[in-house]
Fold:
Amino acid sequence: MSGEEAAARRSRPRAASASPTDRRPAAARNVFPDPRSAVAISIATTIALLLLWWAATEWRWIGPLFLPAPGVVFDRLVEGLARPIGDATLVGHAALSLFRVLSAFVLACLTAVPAGIAMGVSRVARGLLDPPIEFYRPLPPLAYLPLVVIWFGIDEAAKIVLIYLACFAPLALAARAGVRSVAPEQVNAALSLGATRAQLLRHVILPAALPEILTGMRIGLGFGWTTLVAAEMVAANVGLGQMVLNASNFLRTDLVVMGIVVIAAFAYAFDLLMRLAERRLVPWKGRM
Amino acid sequence: MGAVSIQGLSVSFPLPGGGWIDALSGIDLAIPEGGFCVALGASGCGKTTLLNCIAGFIAPSSGRILVAGREVSAPGADRGVVFQKHALLPWLSVWENVAFGPLLAGMKRAERRRLAEEKLALVGLAGFADRPVWTLSGGQQQRVGIARALAADPQVLLMDEPFAALDALTREAMQEHLLEVWAASGKTVFFITHGVEEALFLATEVVVMSPRPGRIVRRLPVSFGRRYLETRNARAVKSDPAFIALREEVLAEVRASARDGAGALA
Structure:
């Protein structure tokens, strides 16, 4: 290499090359959002937290009444699969809770998405629906739980209604925001290709709003799981939330923690499913 | 049939701080059927507003626009638009985008597919039919936008700086292509550009516009495009002394009017 060549090499902006010692990003798009997978870091964090939990119980930093050992919680999980905890096995509790959350979620999708789209496209729908949604949205579900019980009784209906209300608002607002994310050029293009109002809705507005709707579904489903325990506070004998509440009444922290872990695992699994659906259904998201 | 007639068109927009701005003032323009009218001017002279009025996206403050003898009141499939920014639908494949107009009109799938492939070949994108549009380059996306406008078979083609985002080589090829498509189809074209050479090469009539208020300051009948169609030699047309002389003359005029406009603002 001649001296001149070496000098040219030195003066070249270092950001363009990706040598292992150069920690500066290669291009702006690699800075934000950082495209590299964070899975390894997430796994490391999980393992570290589990180790910390194990150490805290093994060396009695915290008493078992306050924090049961991971092994004990795991034992409760395995036992719960075979023998009943209260009125049902763990499978029975989980099945009924799943039914409650999912049926409420499906009902919310079927009603909130059309409501949100309507709010996005129509002044009248926006005027009609905005006050009630904005009124109840910030209320904690526990605050209106007594009313729901008085109106819908103590059967499944009340529980599903409570979870449904928790899912509805974020979904409707996401669908409404999705309509707003349609580019005016896309609407104009469709109109100048002869689209009617109905065709515009079906072929342009709905698909354009889909990424936001899917995000809203993720958030709504999360809210659904959050509300599960509140929903199962009233007259339930079976259900994960009820199982946790019942165990806490008897200071059975091992069962409480086991129940929490199971609820979290279900919620996380459904979130992963939603993300998968997002990748399948809206591969163009963020690309155009 | 596809003639465009603009009579006494004015458009004013409210300003955010109060008051009004005259985007267009007293525009009279007649494009005969099969004519190729190019609006030329610096940015802010109301070219795009004029196109949006013909397309039906903006309602005039006064005056009226007739297309094929009927007054424009809303967007319609008789006027196809090619946008500055392609405005494709990313959830549809390339061919589905091209055949979107025929889909809305209720054409059968097999027929749509055949039509889309024909139009894609016309803009040099044969073999791209099944690609997702977001995998195409900006220039390719722009050409899909042109194929889409053609596939709807409008009477009038409205093109808003369609080649501005293309590289110089592709732009020249697309200009030649557009002339051939125009000659073969006999469509009426209204085309916007800020490129003087592009305007002179394509048009049967160039209208030079000036800002604040947006108005037509010069009308210039030209025939370089027809000469290209006879010879198929674009470089010969563009390096012709008559072409160059006119190019410099019009360029000076556009620059002067842009300067005047800036002065009026200050």
User: Anything to note?
Assistant: Chain B touches chain A through 28 residues (CB under 8 Å). The mean pLDDT of chain B is 89. Residues 7 and 28 of chain B are 5 Å apart (CA to CA). The longest helix of chain B spans residues 241-265.
